Amino acid sequence: MLLRRVGWRPCIFVRMSTEKAIGWMQLTDLHVGQPKEGGRVGGVERALLLDLEAMIVGENRPVDVVFFTGDIAFKGGVDEYVRATSILGRVLTRVQECNAKARKVAVDHADAVPLLVPVPGNHDLERPKSGDDAAVLRAAFAGRTGASKPLWTGQTGAFGIVTRCFHAYSEWLSVHPLPFPATMTRGIVPGDCSTSIVRDGLALGVVGLNSAYLHLGDEGPGSLHLDLSQLHRLTGERRDDWVARHDFTVLLTHHSPSWLTETAQQILKGEIRDHHAFDLHLYGHAHLGAHVSQTGAAGVSHMIEGRSLFGAEEDGYARMHGYTLGRLVRDGESRRVEVWSRSDRDRKSGDELRFGPLDETWGRWHLVIDLGPKPGPSKPPAVNPPRKTWRPGLGNLGAPNAAYWTSVRTPAELTATFERSPRKRWLLLSASVPTVRMPEHLTVESAYIKSAVPPMITETVTLLVQLLMESDIGLVFGGHPSITSTIAPLAMRPSKQDPWIALFQDEHLWPAVVESVGVFDRSPAVLGVLVPDDGEEDSSAKMRRLMIETPGLELAVFLGGMSGVVDEFNMIGEHCPKVSRLALGVGGGAAASLLLNPDTGLRDQAHGGPLAPAVSGWLWSSPKSAVDAIVEVLARRAAPLAVVPSVSDP
Hints:
- The chain is an alpha/beta fold.
- The protein contains 18 helices and 22 strands.
- The protein folds into 2 domains: about 20-370, Metallo-dependent phosphatases (Purple Acid Phosphatase, chain A, domain 2), CATH 3.60.21; about 415-610, Rossmann fold (3-Layer(aba) Sandwich).
- The chain has helices spanning about 40-60, 80-105, 130-140, 155-165, 165-175, 230-235, 240-245, 260-270, 410-420, 440-445, 445-450, 455-470, 480-490, 510-515, 540-550, 565-575, 590-595, 625-635, and strands spanning about 1-5, 10-15, 20-25, 65-70, 115-120, 185, 195-200, 200-210, 250, 280-285, 290-295, 300-305, 320-330, 335-345, 365-370, 405, 425-430, 475, 500-505, 525-530, 555-560, 580-585.
- The longest helix has 26 residues, at about 80-105.
- Helix 2 crosses helix 14 (about 510-515).
- A hairpin with a 2-residue loop joins strand 1 and strand 2.
């Protein structure tokens, strides 16, 4: 501030700041579902949420975009992505709430919402079960250079293998209700993406490249590939035009350059990321966190290795946890990036994990990097909001969101709730994958667990849900965690008659199941029915009673499961004699035992299966034959199943 006297009156001249900034956060390597997790993810999550409050609100560093640089899951399983969505939903909700406080706007204001831009890692793919598949992939990439034809030219087999490996990740990116940018270009490899983000008058261009499609086993550094055609599919061959439309550009991969072959490293450094193309290259995988700079004729290339949010516990080292916060700042033509790396490690028993206090320096560092001048874009891209399915509060551990769940205590309230659905005919699915969850299951449920065929159960559920989605019959389901992950990707796709899934949930069990059912909160396909724990009746028993009293219930299907499936079978037989019951043996478990028990009246349905393997019966010889049996039973009723044309994806 300058002070100058003119006559007798002081005049104050204030130099107005022209700085504008986009805040960002890098998360990486969460590894949801890893066997050594030991229930410690909750502690890491709590520490992260507390530190976000301190950094975003206390230090006034709002976050506009969250980069996730791979390894969201551990084995690329659908169930892992369902759980990851709940965890990330809570983290992104906290970021949005903190942004609103820091910017003094409403929580639902556009300036408060963080966008999520991810790339997959080597744990996000389902490894090929055949060594032949791995050999086909490696052969497809042998000898490739920057001058090679685009990927998959004449190699449909290799493309099919990669697509299958990343199927669950692609489903997650397509339909899960997280704040992905509404406009995001998909690439030549599953997981490749690009998008433009506009905040505070600045345009940020982001390119994410899948570096993990050859990481099929125990590959080491120097074995992976990045292809120039991956970039060209996202930015066009005139990449520099794409760069010029943005104030800042960021490249995301999971692996560092050292994991690429020598040829791929040359493609990355000389053609994808030559020194004026990307201001930052963010990656993960190594878990430790680092800043790497490479000098060249055109300037300096800066790389940030993110700290693992939930790293590995191996080689005698303590498990490390961390994340990175940053700001991309423009002041006129000058530009800089500010980086704060946050970290902690597993402490001694009884010590709480924490990423602070802010003045503690172990494992934490702050960088300010001059990115050099660059003219602002003459025609910046349009504002890119999050998908409409995102709402803060996803995966809330405290209680279900009242906007998506209806409390039901009586049959009259149940009838009123079901009037919201255009579907008037319903099928109840009583199913689970038999597994040991409590010590007593080793004895009481051992026969069901031994006879279970989990892949058959999940495939049958998938086929059944696909059938109902395109029909006039709705699905009634009790939200068992072993089945919800199978239903979730289909439940989040649009249907012509929404809602068509009635998901019942015991309020008392909410904290235990939120990771698997929280993702259903935002789906228009789901009618959430919450049975409160009022102390007058066991809430689980009340939930079952209300489920079988569903208006228009025509058929109950039993698949896999343990004693609970038998209980529900008997309950329907006693209280709802007009509802047909069909036990399927294809998945083994309690449903198969019902077929062989002469007291159930179903023995004539059984012709073999896991409990009598010498003979193959039509009710359980395959998932398709099991679903055909369901269609046949429905056809015998007064109104056969009708097909309703499904709505195509937006």
